[in-house]
Amino acid sequence: xNNNPAIKYGIIGSVLLLVFGILIQLLMLSYxxxxxxDPNNFSFGKFLLYGILSLVFIVIVYIYCISxxxxxxxxxxPDYTYRKLVGQGLIVTLILVxxxxxxxxxxxxxxxxESKEKTLELTKQVYQNITTLTxxxxxxxxxxxxxxxxxxxxxxxxxxxxxxxxxxxxxSASVLNAKNKMNNPQQLR
Length: 189
Description:
Blueprint: H1 5-37, H2 44-76, H3 82-111, H4 113-129, H5 135-146, H6 150-183
């Protein structure tokens, strides 16, 4: 188990996700503070860009960690099977999800609990200051912010992450297994 690349890449990926998550959170907080002080500084495009950038980074980390783990595993076990490769991907995914979610939870609720509340208040201020929204739209947006269920959000995030990791694992294992069969004609039998 000490030589299992899934553990190595799961932990590396988790740390990358945590560091990037903290950086994005700090950038968003700074952006919201600026937008709350001067509503003319707010741009839906820039706000959306932070979310898109986060998703792209998360996808890259998952793909890199899962595929790199599978490649390293093939070197350790030349008699690997498709099932073993998928298993490697699922172990990486599980470590990524559990460690990064756990560390993120600790950071947001133990290290900087005031940050979450401050972000919520600033977001409400930004919504109140947007002149292109009607009062009804502002009320609905603020109501959605107030009705957020952290447990549901956490479970949804974990579920989506596990599903994405499964898909990446299945695809990566198929590609790597197919490459091996092409390079090793004895396995075609």
